[in-house]
Amino acid sequence: MKKEKTGDNSRPFKLAHQILSLTGISFQRKSIIGFVELTIIPLRDTLRLIKLNAKQCRIYRVCLNDTYEAPFQYFDPFLDICQGDNKQRSLEFFSTMHLAAAQKVDPDNNSGELVVQIPPDAAHLVAENRGLRISIEFSLEQPQGGVHFVVPNCEGTLAERGAHMYTYSYENSSRLWFPCVDSFAEPCTWKLEFTVDDSMTAVSCGDLVEVVYTPDMRRKTFHYVLNTPACAPNIALAVGPFEIFVDPYMHEVTHFCLPQLLSSLKVSAKYMHEAFEFYEETLSNRYPYSCYKQVFVDEIDEDINAYATMSILNTNLLHSTAIIDQVYITKKAMAQAIAEQFFGCFISMQNWSDTWLPKGISTYLTGLYAKKCFGNNEYREWIQSELQEVVKYEEQFGGIILDPSQAPAPLPIAANTPAPAPRAPDPGFYFPIKNLHTMSPKYIEVLRKKAHLIMRMLEHRIGQELLLQVFNKQLSLAANAAQQKIESGLWSHMLISTNVFAKAIFTVTGKDMSVFIDQWVRTGGHAKFSLSFIFNRKRNTVELEIRQDTTHQRGIRKYVGPLVVNIQELDGTFKHTLQIEGTMARADITCHSKSRRNKKKKIPLCTGEEVDMDLSAMDDSPVLWIRLDPEMTIMRAVQIEQPDYQWQYQLRHERDVTAQLEAIEALQHHPTPPTRLALTDTIENEHCYYKVRLRAAHCLTKVGNAMVATWSGPPAMLAIFRKLFGSASCRRIIKQNNFSNFQHYFLQKTIPVAMAGLRNAHGICPQEVLAFLMDLFKYNDNSKNRYSDNYYRAALIEALGATVTPVISVQQGTAITAESLSIDTKAILEEVTRNLNLEKLLPCYKYTVSVACLKVIRILQKFGHLPSNPHLFRAYAAYGQFIDVRIAALEALVDFTRVDGKWEDLEFLLDMAEMDPHPGVRHRLVRLMVENPPFERAHKHRLDKPDLVDRIWNLINGMLSHDAKLRCDLVDLYYTLYGTKVPFCLPIPEIVAITKPKKAGPPTPEREVKAAPVQYVKHESIEEVESLPVSNKRKASPNRDPPGPSNPGVEHGPELKRQKQDERGIPVPAEGKVKSEYYSDNSASLPGIMGTPPGPVGFEPGMFKKESEEHKPKSDSSNKSKKKKKDKKKHKHKHKHKHDHKHNKDKEKKEKDKNKDKEKDKDKEKEKGKDKDSSALKIKDETLSSASSSQSPEPTATNEFLFP
């Protein structure tokens, strides 16, 4: 087999072996001292430069063969991507520079951040095919990416507190914690040594050979050896006081979890051995390594991270026997991690562009296991939802090209015409798709889904058995290569690429799949079909018309090839394959049956069973329904036009869940009594797949609302719910909870939420529905249920939120107080606050009830029932709260910022996105801002300011060199707000005057510059330092060093916070009045959290007091003008906004008089002169704002938040 020119062989050397030794792992200082030794084999005698990857590392010395000290240079282009170009602010320019920066250090381009020179006196060491050892001493001080330390701030030793650390990587980013060749295409053998405290355990890749204590017996060194070649991105480490559980079914499998979570671990991993057995049987190949370890850690970004012989998983995947909903997620996640051991870790990829193969194959294998575990219905519904997600993303942003490294072959043309050179299609994305470190994280997420679907398409083209044989062949070749030495040159068999994969398919099946690869792998987009038909009674034929008239739209392309159409007739299902050539295809299909509306006869379905149908709704056509590409063998979106009765037949009688879900989707647009009946029957049908029944319930809500004028009887689904769950003696009273029937459990959770969406003729929720929901709370009894009802209670609270409708009228100038609330709203609010407070005493699994309560409070604010106030959500978003609660609070804050937000609200979010200690929260927050941006692009808005452009630009340009994922998230946000061109808020003449983007300093957390002392005026408004609650057990450890010495004239500490709060008119509790936290004896701590962090409390006596002037309704116009003046006053005194104020003045001048050019020039010169003076003030402001990560007093009761 001819070797491809890839990253694997573009380097002038091969990596044979690597030693990684970390001796000083300090939890207090969050630092690491280490040593690596790479054994390389030069491929030519002239080798003089060795390029390696290293980020954040402080390199002390580099030695060759332990004898010669080698000079080295370090360069990280991500510290200043645009290379000091301060004129540009467009993503078009940034994308070009972003890709250039990534390629400058791409190991597959023989590049790297660390360039080691071979000195002349050591040149004799370099000889072809002779080993050369390069040893590097390095340290990491408070790394900001790649390594995460979790140190709970409570009493006790590190081990008692559950302190732990682990490495995490976004694609290939092992360079963040040790110098290496950070390529997927450079496998080698490994020796790993980690010295840790006596109470800690170090878990890493390979076999644990020995554990050696230091002479003082206070520390111990774990020695691991990995003899199967693996690449650097697949190496990981976790250190902590782990509890160890050896799998009782497979002794080579070991599980590690944090203290006190062993019982949950045993439940969660109970059936994991089945996944191993399934994969080994399916692939006809043994698990490729000698052991497998899975470690559960806290505060990790992704649920699963797979590495050679080990996986690092999120501790929130663990669950007890009482939990239902989490089981499906956890089982699938663990199965995915094991599948990635085969494809992803053992078999890696030849180039970054081959990432679709390990991602696609491992997810495909996980899908096969999920089908075995959860059934075919679950599997098909999952495939359908993945397809819909890919279609949605491609239509929004453009077609995903799985392998952009090579252009597809040109289409066949006439014999006498010369073939044009293949040219890669321009996908038109706002980010480069030619490097993993420049792609949007959302793009990579959807790419995995598409790769999985393409793998499934291949299964349909060549058959599952042959596809599994192809996988088996790759694994067998790799297993053989892994046994050989590097000299054999066979290690390349452990790498997979698009071309290698296509050749393997040809070898196994004899089928040439190059056209398929060109069509679906090297080209982006999907097909979109519109099908309509009429029945020709005279000829007894169906005249089909299939159109592709949207091929010019983004993400959609023309499909040419076979297309399957299934027609369900009275005499059975008939499959027809049509050949699609152009954008319009017509076909006349002869029917096999004659119409017989009045004759009763059993009708055969595609499954072979025969059913009775009521055919009275039919016309003369014998066609019951039509389906297009029922097996989802093409990347496509489908629209079928058929009458409502045919959709009703399809819902009632088609056995394929995807068809039933399509029918439900279509029936939303046909609100008729027969539709209502079909949906009601589906919800009640015990033989129907539960997700179809849930979807039917939500559809019935929409149908009921559309039919509100003609609806008779009780509200939709009320009778069904009472029939299923009402007690025999009194239907109003609900039975005690019994969730042993999982179908009924999911129905019991969903029907109340669906009913809450019902509206009467006045557009408000019927009183009967609200009374029904209140009864559910009143009679909820879980005392005899073996399963937890936390998800059920959360669903009931969600249902309360869904009943809320906007306030009908608010009197001019009246404040929102408790007395002004309607009876219904007061009842909802009391129920929500009661549950929120109860969670403090008896926290439930994952705080699901708190999450639901926060969502409802935001709905009440949004619809005008509560004053719109961010402070409750800020308290719940603080570090120390459980992750799901924080995300729910942040979601509310993002929404608040969009609807009512001021500049400081947006700054609060950006500060958190930049500095929050939890990497997962930083990422999720920016994704929330992308999905719900603070303002619409190109619409004038108070938050659309040059300051925001500068803030985001400086982050993506240089301040996130250590976090490619967050950088690309922020690129997505920049695109959402400004598109690819220069932002509109930057006036064209003043672009030149924009301050130079900050260059990030050395890779240490000390980013503040100590400013010259600045004298502050007493009355001025200093940047807001928000008072956030932080757990008394787990305080947010500040991300940066504390600010430097400050001027005595500047007010610090509580006075500063209080002064700011008093200015905004928010009451500040006296020290003695701060509430202390109470715990019940049986309150259980959540996985990974060392204690229940305090949050704001709920309903309290005296909470309904008069509203302060500041929070009067918006409709008061006089108030508005007062506010504006107040804001203007504040604005003048804010140092940070001095420039903005100038810009705005200049804009006004331009509008008034366009001819005064001279005056404008003078203004500009003045500004330039002032830039230097004001920079000191800006720096001081930043230093003050960094104090917000320190501990602040716990907030008082919810009355302070709900009715300030």
From TrEMBL:
GO BP: RNA polymerase II preinitiation complex assembly
Major localisation: nucleus
InterPro entries from the UniProt entry: Aminopeptidase_N-like_N_sf (IPR042097), Ig-like_TAF2 (IPR057345), Peptidase_M1_dom (IPR014782), Peptidase_M4/M1_CTD_sf (IPR027268), TAF2 (IPR037813), TPR_TAF2_C (IPR057991)
Keyword Transcription regulation: yes
Domain Transcription initiation factor TFIID subunit 2 TPR repeats: 644-999
Stretches with biased composition (Polar residues): 1193-1204
Pfam families: Peptidase_M1, TAF2_3rd, TPR_TAF2_C
Segments of skewed composition (Basic and acidic residues): 1052-1065, 1103-1119, 1143-1183
Record keywords, A-Z: Nucleus, Transcription, Transcription regulation
Single GO MF descriptor: zinc ion binding
Residue ranges of every copy of the Peptidase M1 membrane alanine aminopeptidase domain listed in the record: 272-388
Domain Transcription initiation factor TFIID subunit 2 Ig-like: 525-643
Compartments reported by the entry: Nucleus
An annotated GO cellular component: transcription factor TFIID complex
Region (Disordered): 996-1015, 1022-1204
Biased composition, class Basic residues, residue ranges: 1120-1142
Signal peptide: none
Family to which the UniProt record says this protein belongs: Belongs to the TAF2 family.
PANTHER family: TRANSCRIPTION INITIATION FACTOR TFIID (PTHR15137), TRANSCRIPTION INITIATION FACTOR TFIID SUBUNIT 2 (PTHR15137:SF9)
Protein name in UniProt: Transcription initiation factor TFIID subunit 2
Lineage: Eukaryota, Metazoa, Ecdysozoa, Arthropoda, Hexapoda
The encoding gene: LOC105422815
